[in-house]
Amino acid sequence: MIRQAAPPGQIVLAPMRWWHIEAAGPIERDLFGDEEWSPGMFWSELAQVATRWYRVALDGEELVGYAGLCVYGPEEAWVQNIAVRRDRQGHGLGRRLLDELLDEAVRRGAQQVLLEVRADNGPAQRLYARRGFEAIGLRRGYYQPSGADAVVMRWDAMGAG
Question: Which of the residues 45, 66, 104, 128 is marked catalytic?
Answer without folding.
Answer: 128
